[in-house]
Amino acid sequence: MAKTRHGKSDVNSYTIRGTNKVVRAGDCVLMRPSEMNSAPYVALVEKIEADNCNHMRVRVRWYYRPEEAVGGRRQFHGTKELFLSDHYDTQSANTIEGKCIVHSFKNYTKLEYVGPDDYYSRFEYKPVSGAFFPDRVAVYCKCEMPYNPDDLMIQCDQCKDWYHPTCVDLTVELAMQLDHFICSEHESDEDVKKPRENPFTDGKAGPKRRKK
Predict the structure, then answer these.
(1) Which residues contact 96 (CB under 8 A, 6 or more apart)?
(2) Residue burial 35-63, b: 16+ Cβ < 10 Å; e: rest
(3) Is 169 left (phi over 0), alpha (psi -120 to 50) or beta?
(4) How many Å apart are CA 53 and CA 211, to the nearest integer?
(5) Long-range contact list for 10-13, CB < 8 A, 24+ apart?
(6) Within the chain, how many helices (H) and strands (E) appear?
(7) How far is CA 163 from CA 141, 154, 182, in A?
(8) What is the percentage of the chain residues whose pLDDT exceeds 90?
(9) Contacts of 173 (CB under 8 A, 6+ apart)
């Protein structure tokens, strides 16, 4: 049963106004932004409580978008990338506009379909210090950038490393037609890069998941 304290009680769930969507602690939600025509805020619900007048409030942990963090948005940040912060807040439950899913980075890259309410997080962020955790991740390609799941990459048949087409002097269109790819460090005069008839059959180019 709900626990009462100082005129407030913890409740198990909240139904988003005007919908049949139920929010519980542990869910991720979209919250009304302070400015019109802005993207909704994204938050992790920690707790839901009601006062004696049945006004519902939620304690949340905010997700930050790359452009809201120190350093801003960088090339390797995906369009659906978020940072889980240590910024907590309490808001009226009426500001919740919908639910969403914030996947782990690994699970996100395995999605066959990315919906409008699918996001991912691979970093935690401390707004006060501007620090990220982890502070290092794997890098790929000649440019030594972390993986952006929105970008096409091609894999070398020899070393199995992944490359951005533009970093190996290829267009995206040509990269999608390659049947084989050998990077410059491993290619020889005998290596052949030839187009395949259907670029969407099992080849060596593609994001690690395809958006629909």
Answers:
(1) 14, 16, 17, 23, 29, 30, 31, 32, 58
(2) eeeeeebbbbbeebbbeeeeebbbbbebb
(3) left
(4) 45
(5) 10/47, 10/48, 10/49, 11/48, 11/49, 11/50, 11/56, 12/48, 13/48
(6) 2, 13
(7) 4, 5, 10
(8) 76
(9) none
Backbone torsion region of residue 187, taken as left when φ is above 0, otherwise alpha when ψ lies between -120 and 50, otherwise beta: beta
Q: Which amino acid belongs to residue 182? A: I
Burial class (CB within 10 angstroms; exposed 0-12, middle 13-18, buried 19+) of 105: middle
Distance CA 209, CA 121 (A): 16
Cα-Cα-Cα-Cα torsion 72, 34, 17, 59, nearest 10 degrees, comes to 70
Q: Which of the two residues, 15 and 5, has the higher pLDDT score?
A: 15
Is the backbone peptide bond immediately before 165 cis, with ω within 30 degrees of 0? no
The residues near 129 (Cβ < 8 Å, ≥ 6 apart) are none
- What is the per-residue pLDDT for 167? 94
pTM, whole model, 2 decimals?
0.81
